[in-house]
Amino acid sequence: xxxxxxxxxxxxxxxxxxxxxxxxxxxxxxxxxxxxxxxxxxxxxxxxxxxxxxxxxxxxxxxxxxxxxxxxxxxxxxxxxxxxxxxxxxxxxxxxxxxxxxxxxxxxxxxxxxxxxxxxxxxxxxxxxxxxxxxxxxxxxxxxxxxxxxxxxxxxxxxxxxxxxxxx
Length: 168
Fold this sequence. Notes:
Radius of gyration: 20 Å
Number of helices: 5
Order of helices and strands: HHHHEEH
Distance between the termini: 23 Å
Structural class: mainly alpha
Number of strands: 2
Strand order of the largest sheet: 1-2
């Protein structure tokens, strides 16, 4: 059996879920043990990782093409957000107010204003605050999503090719 024979939709779902959970564990480890604060876009990207993990495990349990297609949609969204994050980091465009470390919201009382002033400002999206092997985590995040999206596309093409062979 060749390696390509193992690339099925179901195997993809469990692989992406496991790698996604590993990535999340690494991010939380860096945040809580090395005091590396994520920016708001990093926090948003974590939602996509959680989505991939959830859809991956559910799709692995109930083998249905819907979960594979949903994972592709989540990967596309994560890749788009990763590209947007990279653009903010490289100053191609500006991010939101939260990307610049400015607290969102307005204080409605003196106590809320004091709490806002004492709170630690959020990390800026346009400054890479951590690198892995000299590469910004933003690049690695984008590569993660694009790599898995490419694998997803390859499996989709392989499945369609197999269906054509079965019809002939």
